[in-house]
Amino acid sequence: MLRLSKTINKHRANIRGLSILKTKTSNDTNFEVGQVVEGFIVKEVRPVTDFQLTALRLEHQKSGADYLHIDRNDTNNVFSVAFRTTPNQSNGLPHILEHTTLCGSKKFPCRDPFFKMLNRSMANFMNAMTAPDYTFYPFCTENQSDYYNLMSVYLDAVFNPMLRESDFRQEGWRLEHKDVDDKSSPIEIKGVVYNEMKGVYSDNQQIYNEHFLNYILPSNTYGINSGGDPNVIPSLTHSDLVAFHHRYYHPSNSRFYSYGNFNLENHLRFLNDTFLKDCSADLSIKDETKVPNEKRWATSKRAHVACREDPMVPKDKQSSLSIGTLWSDITNTQETFELAILSRLLLNGPNAKFYKSLIEPNIGTDFSAATGFTDQTRDTFFAVGLQGLNKSDFERVESIYEDTIKSVIKEGFDNRDIDNILHSVELSMRHQTSNFGLQLLYGTLPIWNHDGNILDSMCVSEKIDEFKKKISNKPNYLQSLVDKYLLNNNHKLVMTMSPENNFEELRKENEEKLLKEKLAPLSNADKENIYQQGLELRRQQDAIQDVTCLPSLSINDLKKTTDSVPLIRENINNTPVFIFPQPTNQVTYFRSLINTSHLSDDLKTLIPLFCNVVTRMGTKSMDFRQFDQLVRKSTGGLQVSQSIIDSPRNLFNMKESVILNSHCLDKNVDEMFDLWKQIFTQVTFEDENRFKTLIQEEASSLANSISGSGHMYAMLCATAGINPIDAQRETYGGLQYISTMKKIAQIDDLKPIMKKLEKISEIILNKNTMKCSLTIVDNNSTAVKGLESFLNTISGNWDLSNEYNKIDKQDDNVKCFHHVLPFSVNYCAKALPGVHYAHKDFAPLKVLCKYMSSKYLLPTVREKNGAYGSGASLSMSGSIQMFSYRDPKPIETFEAFDDACNWVNNKKITIEELNEAKLAIFQGIDHPVAPMSKGNALFFNDMDQQIRQEHRNQIMNVKIDDLLNVANLYFSNTNFAKALIGPANNSINSGTNWNVTNHEDL
């Protein structure tokens, strides 16, 4: 399960102004304040016109439980239950409890009903998450029967969990022999959360963020690690866990949330009758868990954090520095909204004050990890700094910080930048997504958790009007906020981080010391008990579970046909145009696909870099700052990305493309296409300093991404060994590309690369290989005329005989790759050749992968071996992939991968299990699609309704024998590839088939 990020990334939008699905509310708006409904009293009813919803606050009369319902005509309904959980130690108690509650309950006593419900539901989202001061359990589904099935499982899990000691040992931590069956093998510390947090502590950015939070808010619960410090987790006892649950998972400490168009009264009746009607209130719990405001400091403080060396970053550029100040109380929603705007003015984009002063001089590689406005804690805080620093530049950065603040107070902000931010809020309020209910929960829960007025927080227009009034009455209002919260704020933290040569050795020493301390007092009887407990846990993990207690949808609950998407095909200026009429809420969406297969290989390797910088370099008529200001004024941004698209009908056929993507309010269509015209006709690659800045940012971002997405990089590395298309993807987006960017970032003279990017623009920024798409309301002729004007302006003539090009199959040699990186856990992957999307075996292979994920890999690799995650999938490129995430036992994991075919043959698959796997597949197929994305499958992937319907029918018709046949045909293939990302491993590194890359040598 996920832990919430404690800081807001500089690219992340403010959730309280996020995208919506603007529709009419449903029928739950006739409740009145003071009315009692199914044991709940209505406390407040408020229409929120910004989002076309009605919010209702209720309170359960007997227990005091809090309830927020969002009445909105959205079919993707959401439910969540949350508890304020404020730990006082770094033993990971709330985090481990979150895991353990989902391991079985009184009504559903089978092991891990949460994971089993993943295959018995049509939920498009299921999870449980631990934040620094609360834990919550959300899900989303469009099916009403499914909704109540999941409610019953979730609520029984949190209110009536089994909390067995064996589950605590599996999910939290335990002492166990390395080989469970061998009493003579060494005893180790194991556990899912224990290994998860070891993985977290392998990431320098996570270490930095965690410590910054601990140091700037040290007095209360934020001063410890709610997820758990691996050195402290083994101090937690099962009795501590049970006592914490008994006290804090109480209805009086609960916050219930529902969203969508299902009937509220039914929700309340179900909740009251099943769980709450016999509960009594204990109001002391809320007082006990309440987080007070941090006492403001009289003087600023400093802190230093050690980290591991990062072989993907130059050795003299591995330090970070951040300066943070404590800001508003999160419950002051107006001030928090205004401070979020101030943060964006200071940080976002090339016109932002700190971007100019800190990023553009190229002192470091990018903003530091803790940079941003954090509004997830009781007291919000703001931080800014740099990573990729030399320690000798620390003082310089601090000096620049002070000078920047003073200049802001003196000069103020450009009104155009303020207007652009407000425009982005308006656009985001109209921009439609399929998960608005979930995003609204994320945005309101931190305020709600601290008893703030959550209904006020949703009224964005009122906050904008109030903000405009303030800056109108007091032109220097924003400067006064800078003076108050930045210049004259004694609650200031300056934190630095630098690598230590022996960091990993010290970590291992501490781990070994901890283990010795645990083993030292053990008697022979204690050790025998550890051995027996290990055997017993294994027996429980291997036991066949009776899942008949769990509710489930059936295949008959699924729709039989694929949804059709209205389409108008046009040919404008000899260019293919797809027009998708949709209810876009006065927003126009433009996409374009430009084929790049005709580029030379040396230019193709630079396409990802080209995409990253082409809209951020400026044009011949305006510099990058001026251009960025126009982009923010009129659009939601101009995005350019590279994509390699597989043919759904032919293996090893791919479409190499660059994708253009933008959206704007309907009234700004002409301005949006004018911006694209400038990119196509005037883009320039002449500002070397700007180019260097963008390269440093990209290289730094890529290097930081490995530990959090190691399984994705491992899968790509493995599939590259067996599939020529994935080999291309690895070159353009895998570890190979990260190494390439690392080298480019260290080049002094970048002019030759800039010349190549200019050459790419000359070749592809035209109509020669372009096709376009518009998603608009039915009668929006302005958007079509705007696109026509754009196409009339740019050069070229459509000349593309075939979008796809065939690539030669690779040899059948076994390939195994180990990328040695200084992590304390591993990421494993194995790849096997599969088939293309339209092949008759694609559907049974897809079902088999889903079946193996839940019935084999999850219990074997996660539950027994302690990895945080594991699974199998089938990619559109025709590659079968098995993977593990934050894995302490790579040898055992690869053995499990290799034994997959034998396991299937020895497993008696039931009809019920087959249908569960199919349901899990249809979760992905039938997930809600926002209007802006409808038609993407056709436009990008050439998947029309017929081929999607055929695929649907094939999945429906998969039989048990089909799974056995494809298992023996494909999973027994001796042509495979493996990849491992993680620390040096003597057992693997000594293997003759393994190619070892030590990234310290790159």
Automatic annotation (TrEMBL):
Any single Pfam family the record assigns to this protein: Peptidase_M16_C
Entry annotated with the keyword DNA repair: no
UniProt KW keywords: Hydrolase, Metal-binding, Metalloprotease, Mitochondrion, Protease, Transit peptide, Zinc
Gene Ontology cellular component terms for the protein in this record: mitochondrial matrix
All residue ranges annotated as the Peptidase M16C associated domain in the record: 497-744
Location in or out of the cell: Mitochondrion
Alphabetized InterPro entries for the sequence: Metalloenz_LuxS/M16 (IPR011249), Pept_M16_N (IPR011765), Peptidase_M16_C (IPR007863), Peptidase_M16C_assoc (IPR013578), PreP_C (IPR055130)
Biological process, per Gene Ontology: protein processing
Cofactor: Zn(2+)
Main location: mitochondrion
Record's keyword annotation contains Zinc: yes
Single GO molecular function: metal ion binding
Gene3D superfamilies: Metalloenzyme, LuxS/M16 peptidase-like (3.30.830.10)
Family listed: Belongs to the peptidase M16 family. PreP subfamily.
Protein name: Presequence protease, mitochondrial
